[in-house]
Design a protein that fits this description.
By secondary structure, the chain is mainly α. It has a two-stranded antiparallel sheet. Strand 1 and strand 2 form a beta hairpin. The longest helix is centred in the N-terminal third of the chain and has 18 residues. It starts with 7 loop residues before the first strand and ends with a helix.
Length: 115
């Protein structure tokens, strides 16, 4: 938990003075913990699988893209590829990528419904 000190102004502290800011942060942390506890384990498991697929199939950890919004944008494109292949019945993402690469100018566009 991060403790933030209230800022003092000419009219007085912004959070009502004393330890009011700390109490608000503790209550917020309790609400956040309760909300996180309600997330189904299946959803957490699904995101872990997606991360593992991105790392093993696309070698995401070895990516040289590290600045700005580049890593987030590339992760979004990888997720698009994974979800599109799954939507079209490919259980093995690497095999689906190979299948799409055999005709690189038509199959990816067909999967996306663009062609």
């Amino acid at each position: 938990m991060r403790v933030v000190q209230p800022l003092a102004t000419q009219q007085g502290p912004t959070l009502g003075g004393g330890s009011g800011g700390l109490v608000l942060l503790q209550e917020a942390q309790l609400v956040l913990d309760a909300a996180l506890a309600q997330i189904p384990d299946a959803h957490r498991h699904g995101t872990e699988i997606l991360r593992r697929v991105r790392d093993t199939t696309f070698a995401e950890d070895a990516s040289k893209i590290r600045t700005g919004r580049g890593p987030e944008n590339m992760a979004t494109l990888r997720n698009l590829a994974i979800n599109t292949l799954r939507q079209h019945g490919h259980r093995n993402i690497a095999a689906g990528l190979r299948h799409a690469s055999y005709e690189p100018f038509s199959r990816p566009l067909d999967l996306l419904g663009i062609a």
